[in-house]
Amino acid sequence: MANDDRELRARRLAMKHSGEDALEILRIAIKDEFLGRIALVSSFGAESAALLHLVAAIDKSTPVIFLETGKHFAQTLSYRKKLAERLGLSDVRDIRPDETSLNARDPSGDLWKRDADACCTMRKVEPLMSALGGFDAWITGRKQFHGGGRINLPAFEAAPAHIKVNPLIRWTKSDIESFYAEHDLPAHPLTAQGYPSIGCWPCTHPAASGDDIRAGRWRGAAKTECGIHGR
Ligand code: SF4
């Protein structure tokens, strides 16, 4: 689809459906607008179980892309397995960086120390773009209360090669907590240790209560985004 057409389609969908609740936005995206051409991208992080649960309620065979950077906490990897089983998700894909790229660009595995943007590009952005090759749209868990570039997010938005579906934009922290309680969803093991947002272990730290929810990500650096949503 040409860029202009994608822009128009995303705008039309956002105008028509932005008032719907998260489950209805997902139903429209998965069962109607992008049938068989949409994937969920999940970090299996601190808030991920809510969106995974909603997607499973619509179609457990929806492809779920997990970027297996090789730098995740062991707790995230076990949580990813446990949650997928618990929710009955049948098509969770562990997407790894290209081996040749790793050997050439990060042979010692510590690129994150020298150039975090380059590390994210190789371990996240490039593998994701490759994994999304067969899809027209992808679902994200971004929420407006996370701040930064998320404050004005629409429910549907055009990206360079896809349409992104953001069903949780209006959810608050308390909505997420209520949803976990209502559906008895297991918490990521690291949330009890003070991690409100969880990514790769070298770039994730606990945050003090009252801090911005993403304060522990790339702490001390100007970097705030991994790049899969642009920088
Ligand atoms: S979050 Fe850190 S370790 Fe993970 S890909 Fe980005 S720079 Fe590398």
Helix content: 25-40%
Overall structural class, as computed from helix and strand content, comes to: alpha/beta
Taking the alpha carbons of the first and last residues, their distance comes to 24 Å
What is the overall silhouette?
globular
CATH class placement = Alpha Beta
Cα radius of gyration in angstroms: 17 Å
Report the portion of residues in β strands.
5-15%
| Biggest sheet overview | 6 strands, mixed
Task: Present the secondary structure layout.
Layout lengths: L2 H15 L4 H12 L4 E4 L6 H11 L5 E4 L6 H14 L4 E4 L3 H7 L5 H4 L1 H16 L5 E3 L16 E3 L4 E3 L7 H10 L49
Parallel strand pairs: 1-2, 1-4, 2-3, 4-6
Antiparallel strand pairs: 5-6
Provide a short characterization of the protein structure.
With 231 residues, the chain is an alpha/beta fold.
Task: Give an account of the 3D structure.
This protein has 231 residues and is of the alpha/beta class. It has one domain: HUPs (Rossmann fold), CATH 3.40.50.620. It contains 8 helices and 6 strands, in the order ααβαβαβαααβββα. A 6-stranded mixed β-sheet has the order 3-2-1-4-6-5, with helices on both faces. Helix 4 (74-87) links the parallel strand 2 (64-67) and strand 3 (92-95). The longest helix has 16 residues, at 116-131. The mean pLDDT is 92. Bound molecules: iron/sulfur cluster (SF4). The site of iron/sulfur cluster has 13 residues, from helix 7.
Keywords:
6 strands, alpha/beta, 8 helices, binds iron/sulfur cluster, Rossmann fold, single chain, six-stranded mixed sheet, 39% helix
